[in-house]
Design a protein that fits this description.
By secondary structure, this protein is an alpha/beta fold. Helix content is 36%, strand content 21%. It contains 17 helices and 20 strands. It has helices spanning 57-65, 98-103, 111-118, 134-146, 164-173, 188-194, 216-248, 257-272, 333-340, 375-380, 402-407, 425-436, 455-467, 479-485, 505-510, 547-576, 583-614, and strands at residues 17-27, 32-42, 46-51, 72-76, 83-86, 152-156, 180-184, 197-202, 205-209, 293-304, 307-318, 322-326, 348-353, 359-362, 392-395, 398-401, 443-447, 471-475, 488-494, 497-502. The strands form five sheets. Strands 5-6-7-3-8-9 form a six-stranded mixed β-sheet, with helices on both faces. A six-stranded mixed β-sheet has the order 14-17-18-12-19-20, with helices on both faces. Helix 13 links the parallel strand 17 (443-447) and strand 18 (471-475). Helix 7 runs antiparallel to helix 8 (257-272). The protein starts with 16 loop residues before the first strand and ends with a helix. The model is unreliable at 275-280 and 518-543 (pLDDT under 50).
Length: 615
């Protein structure tokens, strides 16, 4: 793939300020999506637009494209501004082929621009949208976008459905566009590498941070800690004023109406200020499977036509493993998962699955089978085991009201009776996760679980998978997610030969893995592994413990107890300390507590690993 966008078309022609928003509001005063929005976009700006799902990011992008107008405020655009927009869910229903979608709006003399960009990818322009995969539709969207010279590019989740080859290419190309861009993405690594400003949409407010996404999490933490300090200060003021009002109001009624009005103002301000949004508990339900062996594959091969998707793969997956499967789109990752889980037969070789294994899967396609079904019915109809309580689900053996359960997945109570067709892509993704976490499973199979999720939900999912004692097989192109979750990575080396690397994407990359391009086979003369090479069975980790590991396991009980005591003492000290307006002291205490908690989690994880291996 070429890395020089100037080969496609001329450079942007406008300079200076491209956009200006002043006191913009979208919605009404009572129910504003965002309010009091004021910021500028200048030539060359590289902006990350971040916030929770449903916070208004896509709405802001549509405002910048001109698809919608603000309900209040001023939007300043220079004459002749050219804006390119990659929507999250493009509508291709009116196009006969992907090529027609790419060339729409171009003259015959400009078709070569689309053809030049399309040559970077490996999709069939004559393919119909109904036949195309999510990755092919997203690549066609990039072709359509980059075929037109723009002064400002707007990207709404551009990495959804893309493979690592295209994601890395896009990450390299963005800083060289020569134009300004605003990008909404859950791919932390891409945002960190490409942006130098951040716009944070947070509970109806838009905050402009003069830093790239790499520095944003630290800035965000500072803002939230200051908000928590202000909340505690308000609580103290309200308690003081309420005590005064209840004890002496009758004697001072006429003289102190102003103070009562101040108490009312404090209460309203406190009502508008929400607590720091702590991550609710997302926990997968786990069944108990006998034995350590989950899946064993021996010399498995599978071909599609003349193309070898899998050639002599031997693999063992043990209880507790997190196996990531990576590679370009179209090389057979989903087929490999189907073979490993027994849903498809290999051409040669065999697969053995552990006895009593129960699995649940999250498919890449989130479209519901019945779009008219309500959210309530979608959840309560899935293994609820509570026929006498139709509004409840059973999660980890406990009955929970469906509204309470949905709150853990960032849903408002008003959505519970909404039809599935009314949900956004991100909402459908969260709902499918909520459903899959209800099932009692030993194995979770997740195909592109990060698509359409915001950063908070990604963190919750990572934490849930870390706590889940079963086994996980996941297909993902999110490098940060892979590094945080995977204990093993299975990657295509070429010609159907797959290789196992310990750890996540970074480990595989450091050990020489390179995604070699989009397509099924390597070209002749490739340096990749040759077809027909039989690799021995790969044992992920040996059962049993060494002498040193047995002693370490015995020591860990005492170490964990001591560390838990330190955490308890630190928490008690924080709770007992007088509330202080000294932000630095408060932040230091919270950081010390977080460090102790992280050390405790590390010790517990080590104990769990050794205990499982010891049997």
């Amino acid at each position: 793939m070429t890395q020089d966008p100037s080969r496609w078309h001329r450079e942007p022609r406008l300079g200076g300020q491209l956009f200006g928003l002043r006191d913009v509001m979208i919605g009404t005063q009572a129910e504003a999506v965002v309010a009091d929005v004021s910021f500028d976009i200048h030539q060359g700006d590289r902006i990350a637009l971040v916030g929770r799902n449903g916070s208004g990011k896509s709405t802001l992008l549509k405002l910048l494209t001109g698809l919608i107008e603000p309900d209040q405020g001023e939007v300043r655009r220079p004459a002749g501004l050219r804006v390119g927009y990659l929507p999250q869910d493009p509508d291709l229903s009116s196009y006969a082929t992907l090529g027609a979608y790419c060339r729409d709006g171009l003259t015959l003399n400009e078709y070569h621009l689309a053809d030049r960009v399309a040559a970077l990818f490996n999709f069939d322009p004559d393919q119909t949208p109904e036949q195309a995969s999510g990755g092919e539709i997203r690549q066609a969207g990039l072709v359509r976008l980059f075929s037109r010279p723009c002064d400002l590019y707007l990207f709404d989740e551009p990495t959804n459905h893309l493979d690592l080859v295209t994601i890395e290419w896009l990450e390299q190309i963005l800083p060289d566009l020569g134009a300004a861009f605003v990008i909404v993405s859950h791919d932390r690594r891409m945002l960190s590498a490409t942006t130098h400003r951040t716009i944070w949409v947070d509970r109806g407010r838009v905050r402009v941070m003069e830093c790239g996404y790499r520095e944003f999490p630290d800035r965000q933490e500072t803002v939230l800690l200051e908000e928590e300090r202000r909340r505690r200060h308000l609580d103290r003021q309200i308690r003081t004023e309420t005590l005064w009002a209840t004890e002496g109001i009758s004697a001072r009624r006429k003289r102190n109406q102003g103070r009562l009005r101040r108490l009312d103002t404090l209460r309203r301000e406190r009502a508008e200020m929400r607590r720091i949004m702590a991550s609710p508990d997302m926990t997968a339900t786990h069944d108990v499977m006998a034995g350590q062996m989950v899946i064993e594959a021996r010399t498995v091969s599978f071909s599609f036509g003349q193309h070898a998707l899998i050639d002599s793969l031997s693999l063992r997956i043990l209880k507790g493993d997190r196996l990531a499967i990576i590679g370009p789109n179209g090389i057979g990752k989903t087929t490999l998962v189907e073979i490993l889980t027994g849903r498809r037969k290999p051409d040669r070789g065999w697969v053995r699955i552990g006895k009593t294994l129960t699995l649940a899967s999250l498919d890449q396609n989130r479209r519901p089978p019945n779009p008219n079904m309500t959210v309530r019915r979608f959840l309560t109809g899935e293994g609820a085991h509570a026929r006498d309580r139709p509004d409840h689900v059973i999660h980890q053996g406990r009955s929970r009201h469906v509204i309470s359960y949905l709150k853990a997945y960032q849903f408002d109570r008003t959505v519970v009776d909404a039809p599935l067709m009314s949900l956004s892509g991100g909402e459908l993704g969260r709902l499918h996760l909520a459903r899959i976490m209800l099932r009692e499973t030993d194995l979770l199979v997740l195909d592109e679980p990060t698509n359409d999720l915001d950063m908070d939900m990604l963190d919750m999912l990572q934490q849930a998978l870390a706590r889940y004692p079963g086994t996980v097989i996941l297909v993902s192109h999110d490098r940060d997610f892979l590094d945080n979750v995977a204990t093993l990575t299975l990657a295509l080396g070429g010609c159907g030969a797959w290789t196992v690397y310990p750890g996540g994407w970074s480990t595989a990359h450091d050990q020489g893995y390179r995604a070699r391009g989009v397509g099924v086979d390597e070209p002749q003369g490739s340096a990749g592994p040759k077809r027909g090479k039989v690799r021995p069975a790969i044992r992920v980790r040996e059962s049993g413990l060494t002498f040193a590991e047995r002693h370490r396991l015995e020591d860990l009980d005492g170490l964990i107890a001591g560390q838990a005591a330190l955490v308890s003492r630190k928490q008690a000290a924080i709770d007992a300390a007088p509330h202080s307006d000294d932000y630095e002291s408060t932040a230091t205490l919270l950081r010390e507590l977080a460090a102790l908690q992280e050390q405790l989690r590390t010790l517990e994880d080590e104990w769990l690993d050794l205990a499982e291996r010891a049997g």
